[in-house]
Structures are given as C-alpha cells and as structure tokens.
Amino acid sequence: MADDLKTPLLDELEKGPWPSFVTDIKTCVDKSDMCKDLLGQLEKSYEDRRGYWKHGGLVGVMGYGGGVIGRYSALPEEYPGVSHFHTVRVNQPSGWFYTTDALREIMQIWDEHGSGLTNMHGSTGDMVLLGTRTEELEPIFRALTEKGWDLGGSGSDLRTPSCCNGPARCEMACYDTMDMTYNLTKSYQDELHRPMFNYKYKIKMSGCPNDCTAAIARSDMGIIGIWRDAIKVDQAAFAEYVDSGMDIQGAVVDLCPTSCITVEGKEINIDDSDCVKCMHCLNRLPKALSPGDDRGFAICLGAKAPIVEGALFGSVIIPFMKIEDGDYEPLHDLLERIWEFWDEHGTARERIGEFIERISLATFLEGIGEDPSPKMVKAPRDNPYIFYEEYYEEEGEGASEE
Amino acid sequence: MATEAKRVTDIGPPHYEQFLHPIIKENYGKWQYHDSIKPGVLSHTGPSGTIYTVRCASPRLVSTNFLNNIMDLADKYSDGYFRFTSRNNIEFLLAKEENIDPLIADLNAMGTLVGGTNNAISNPVHTQGWVHCHSAATDASGLVKAVMDELSEYFTSEKLPAKLRVAVACCLNMCGAVHASDIAILGLHRTPPRIDNEALPKQCEIPTTVASCPNNAIRPTSVDGKTTVKVDEDKCMYCGNCFTVCPAMPLADPINDGVSIWVGGKISNARSEPMFTKLAIPYLPNNPPRWPEVTDAVKSIVELYAANARPFERVGEWINRIGWEKFFDMSGIEFTKYHLDDFRHAGTTYRRSLHNRY
C-alpha cells in the first residue's frame, strides 16, 4: 500500500463483521492514485466533518447530454488523483443479471481507464463506474460500446428504467418486467441520452404489489403488476401447509386487510371480490396460492423524494392494462401522451407528481385523454368547491359546450 | 487507426437473456413456488427444475478487486451466473444444492455475510456521502458500515417479526429514497446557505435561483453594485435546492450538519398500504468514524421493534397499531416541536380524533 497514506479514522471502519468499503478501497491504492487520494480526501472529510467535492460540472461524451456526472475535488493540489473524479453511468441489463464473462470485460475497461471503484448499483439502477478523468470519458465510452454496453441517463431526461427480476425468477410476476424494461429502454434512447424534459423522469417496473423495485416511492412512473380475476388455489398444497403445523389463522387469515379469507378444515376460501391484491397470503403460502390468470399491470405516476414540494408516492393513473402479443404500442402511446402534456405545461424542475398536484388530477387526466375512475382515489372529494364546466342557459335547452 | 471500430451510439443495454442461467431461461415465466432453505438461501422451482439463490451483503461501493473475487466464486459455484438485487445484495444462482455450503464458506472467508432474506434486514440502500457527493451533510458508506456492524445478526438471521429495510441518504435530495424505509438515516444541514456574492453573479441565473426555493426565502438583491441574492433565514429549511441550481450557495457546515432518524415507512402493499417514513429523532451529531449516537439509536429502535411487534408486522404497522405516543413513550425518544410538521399539508398529520391512549 502507498506508504504515505495515513487514514487512522477510516481504519476504524475496517473493524466489525459487515464488509468494509475501506478495506476494499485499500486493495486498490497500489494500482490507482485515484483510490489513494480518494481515501486521503475522505480521511480529511472524516477529520473535518464535511465533504470536499465541488459542485457538478459539464462533462460528457460526444452527442450525449446525460450519462456522466462531473465531479472535481475542491482540494486538487492536495489530492491530485481525484482532481477529476467523474461518474460514468452504464445502463444495466434488466433485473441486474450478469455473467462473469460480460462483467469482467467491463471491469477490465474500468481498471484501464478509471479508478477501479464502482457502485453496484446506483439508486436508479445503473451500474456506476465511480471516478475517472475527463480525457478518459470518450475512450471509456468507445470501449463500452464495442462490448455492447451503453450509458444510462442523468439530468433532465428519461432515467435508466429498472425492474425486479419478474418472470426470470419469481412466481408472482404478473407481467414481463424484464422485457418491458428492455423494450422501453431501447425505444426511448433519445429521451434517455439527451436531456429534453422539464426534469428527470424515472420508470420502474415491479412484477407484483410487493414492489421490490420501490416503484411506488421512487419512480415518476411506476408500472406494477396486478391481476383482476381470482387467486389460483391449490387446495392439496394448502392442506400440506395445514399439516405442517403452520399457524394459518395467525399468519394468514388474521392479517388479511379485508378479512376475505376463511378456512374450513384443510380448505382455504377467498372472497376475491373483496381481495385488494395486497400479496400477504400469497407471500405466506406460495405453494398453494398464485396470482390469477388475468394478469397485467397498474400505472402509478408521480413518486419522488421531498425536494422540492415534498415527498410523494405514485398515484394510480391507469388501474389496469396489459400487453398482448408483445405489442407495446398502447404503452408507448400512453407514455408519449404523458410526456407531451407534461413537457408543454410543466415548469422547469417540476417533477410530474408536483405537476399533477399543481394542475389537479382532473386536468391532468383530460390533458392526456384518460377517463377518471374510483380506482384512482382513496375517496371522492370532501370539499364542495367544484369547477362546473356544464350548465344550462336560461332559455336554452341542453348543456352548453365547454 | 484504420482498424478501430466505428463509433456507435444509442445501442442501449445488452439483451438480458444472454445473462440468464439455463435453468432460469427454461423456467422463465413458469415458476411455481419458492422455498426458504435457511437465512440468505432461497430456492425457486418451476417445471424445468430448481435454482438455488445464495444472497450476500455488499457495501455497494465495491472495487473491481471485490467484484473479481465475487466472479471467481460465481465461476466456481454458479456456472458464472449471478445478479444484484434492488437493495444491492449480490445473489449467486446455483444449479446444484451441494454447492450452497461451500459457497457460503468461501463468501464468509472473503469477508462478506450471507443473509438478507425474509424477516431480516437486507442490504441498506444508500447514497454517496463524502465519497463522491457535493451536497452531502454526512457520509453514507461509513454510516452503513457502522450501523450494520451493530445489526449484522439481523442480516444473517430471520428472527425479526418481518423484513426491515434500512436506508441512508446523506442529504434531503435522498438519492437513497429513504422516505419509505422502515428505518431511515438522513443527513441534514441546519444552517442557511452562505452566499458567495463574488461568484454568484458569474455562476448562477438569478431567476432560477430565486425560483428554486420551495419557501420563497430567496430574493434578488444588489451587493457592491453586483446583482446577487439574499436569503430570508427565518424561511430557510436548509433543503439545498438552491445549492443544486447555484453552486455559489453552499450549505456544508461541520458544526451544525448531522443526522436525523426516521421510522415506519414501507413500499410493499402487503397487508397495509405503502407508508412514508416519519421523524423519530430530529438531530444527532456527525461523529465519524463510527457515529456512536446514530448506531445506538438505530439499534435500540430495532430491538424495541423486535421485542414488541407481532409476527409479520413491519415497523410502521407496529407503530400504527400501538400509536405514536406509545412509540415515543416506549423508546424514550423525546418528542419535540420539530416533530410537528410545518410544511405543505402539515394539517393532515395533526390528531383530529380523540383516539388517544392515556
């Protein structure tokens, strides 16, 4: 290890059972001055209790507006190895599945051109190559594309879509999250790479209401699998759960939020007309219960963290939709209607959730050409200040036009 | 360099199918059920056989050396196939059940832990902190390491009432989206931005800077003949949105920056609706490298929950059942004026019933 590097505070983080990022970065200091100076600057942050990174900076690769996050040290003379420390976002494969052959190729590129540090993965889903110099960006991009990889999104553009493993390894998947993510990512390369929106637009695909990608909280457009018909029941498998001594009453029946499950002997009965598809019984009894056959997805818009107007969960805009025969056209059509309306009427740095709150859900639905439904609200309004758009003329007949 | 390939753009990601284990490819969309074999180990079964998953912890900030070690194990035990979860755990996908225990032994030997499934704490999602971010109020990787050293037994076992999601975000931008986690550790600034009146006119658009403030605390002004901005400090909530659009308004303050603790959020629809995380502790000091105040606070909340919640009750479901006043009472956390919301729609959080416990 580089002899002049002293990190007494960070060394404390090499103790304890959880894997240590400090120990890991230390394995890199001999192959990269970036790692050595990153540890040096971080140690100083730990001493001084503040960060030492400068604000952003416009860097990127030719023809792309997004995909690279510029970062410069505020102390370049002290830590020249991290005077530039840009991040490259690489568009991950659906479901974060890899082969060692493919990922090794990327790691070789990164050892050659960057710090050797990564985030696997960033919060939005991209593989994050953490720390390189401006002059390396174009060579990295070229090396990545030669191996079949492309950059993800950053800035006011479509952010890299991400999904749960869906049908690849889950019996609960109500639609093909993996394929939809691939389709949307490939279809909207321009929107992904060239910032053209009011602000960021994140799309996450979850195969069922367990929502393993946190689509409801972390995506401007959450596409969450759901079914409309009855839960499929294998009574023989249910009887095996009963025979195993499982506390069916306590662990399943009593926890059903709409009390729609009853058990008689070794038989389970579900009143599907009251089922809200919460997933609890399916999670507890995966061998006996599965989502119904009429599977599709709901679309929730507007989730975001607090900045600027406060945190929002996504709210239901399309209660049910399905892709038939691999035809994504209806989804593309909807997405483009949403973007067009938001682009036209949203303001700078206004996320779509804030936009909908500002103009009202009714105006938004009209703007994108969708009809309201009770599935979109917890309850109808409780205030009487209604903007009526239809009324009768004093002497006329019938409602006036808007 | 005539041999160099033509520059291509907009190719998108490689198709995922080439990264799927043959057993996964054959069972794609046809899985029948899953089983939990032991903490950190799952099996998924379909008509074409069973795939075994071994899940291990990752610090998320990992080097190519770490990944090469992981990939050596994937070559040895899982035919070169592996994946990452939405919480940055690493999952090996094994065709052979007999490879499970040797893989676990090798993972433990390389310094990581196997667990994170079912009623466990899985890998904390976190942000960049002092490692890479310009607006961080604290470090994130270090906080995760310090907290998870204390909680690792809840990663390697499934003894909690339900799953428990811990997340860390180093400022209110919340790239780690801590606003819906069971326990969230959130770095915050507590002082208004310091305006660099020299740099501001050169670096920032005044109208954009003024418009960036959610509380209308920023006004244009003139200092020494140069147009700049001023901040009404009574209105500033230290969100940092102005700093994001205008670098000449830094917030970092070693004395006042620190950490807050939030509890009771969830994403899943299971049983109850998704819930936002709510404030438990408004401020704890930044005390690197081990943040003892934060680790103590998080550990005591986890232990209180573990001792008192019913089976399958998430932290937020447990608190909703017992009531927030009882949570503050049981946890010994002081309830202060900072727990009362004063931003948009704050009134929706006020008690408007007499459903109180005495």
* Tally of DSSP helical segments of chain A: 15
- Subunit arrangement of the protein: heterodimer
Radius of gyration of chain A: 26 Å
Give a quick account of the main beta sheet of chain A: strands, pairing sense, barrel closure.
Answer: 5 strands, mixed
**Helical proportion of chain A?**
25-40%
> What value does the average pLDDT of chain B take?
96
Secondary structure category of chain B? alpha+beta
Bulk shape of chain B: globular
Binned strand content of chain B: 15-25%
* Mean pLDDT metric of chain A: 95
Span between N and C termini of chain B?
Answer: 81 Å
Strand order of the largest sheet of chain A: 6-7-8-13-14
Shape field of chain A:
globular
Q: What is the chain-wise order of helices and strands of chain A? A: HHHEEEHEEHEHHHEHEEHHEEHEEEHHH
Number of strands of chain B: 13
Rg of chain B, nearest Å: 24 Å
Q: How many beta-strand runs of chain A?
A: 14
Question: Can you put this structure into words, describing what you see?
Answer:
The complex is a heterodimer of chains A (402) and B (358). With 402 residues, chain A is α+β, with helices and mostly antiparallel strands. Helix content of chain A is 32%, strand content 14%. Chain A contains 15 helices and 14 strands. Chain A has helices at residues 8-11, 21-26, 33-48, 100-113, 134-146, 166-169, 177-187, 189-193, 215-218, 235-243, 248-251, 280-284, 329-345, 352-359, 361-368; strands at residues 68-69, 86-90, 97-99, 117-119, 127-132, 162-163, 203-206, 221-227, 232-233, 261-264, 267-270, 289-290, 295-301, 315-321. In chain A, the strands form four sheets. In chain A, strands 6-7-8-13-14 form a five-stranded mixed β-sheet. A four-stranded antiparallel β-sheet of chain A has the order 1-2-5-4. In chain A, strand 10 and strand 11 form a beta hairpin. In chain A, helix 4 packs antiparallel against helix 5. Chain A is globular and about 75 Å long. Chain B has 358 residues and is of the alpha+beta class. Chain B is built from ten helices and 13 strands. Chain B has helices at 22-27, 64-77, 100-109, 141-156, 200-203, 206-211, 241-245, 292-308, 315-322, 324-331; strands spanning 33-38, 41-46, 49-56, 61-63, 81-84, 90-94, 125-126, 166-169, 183-188, 218-223, 226-231, 258-263, 278-285. The termini of chain B are far apart. At the A-B interface, helix 2, helix 3, strand 3, helix 4 and strand 4 of A face strand 4, helix 2, strand 5, helix 4 and helix 7 of B. Strand 4 (117-119) of chain A pairs antiparallel with strand 4 (61-63) of chain B.
